[in-house]
Amino acid sequence: MNRSFFQILTAGALATIAFDLFGQGLSPLFGFAKLAPVGLANGTLNAVFGSSPKGAADALHIMTGLLAYPLGYLLVARPIAGKILPNLHWSGVAIGYGIGLWVFALYGMAHLVAGLKPFLGFTGITWVALWGHILFALVAAWVLEREAEEPAHA
Cα(70)–Cα(7) distance, rounded to whole angstroms? Predict the structure, then answer.
């Protein structure tokens, strides 16, 4: 199945909006932790480059959501799942991918790169981030997989 660049950007945009709405709006509204993806991106840039120009962390967060993570689903998660569990519905692949993104963000980037506690110390933000990454992956996969579920037109 071919996907257009526009479809990948749409998947990333909608998924990033869902992630930010959930993690920065709804979660704190209901008394849970507020995600700070731009803060993590800033810490990562500082750790890697020694500084972070104004706006660079915002750009990194947006570009990661628009392109890197949707492409990761298409080029990594989907092919691996196809080899290991070929009959697994895309939503199952997306949930697994979302958990993988969470591990990547909170262990790989936050801990190994930025030097923070692994999984941010398993505090409230850890669990909001888990659900946020799963939500991101489900929204992105839904957009990317819709074409596969639509019936063919004669």
Answer: 10
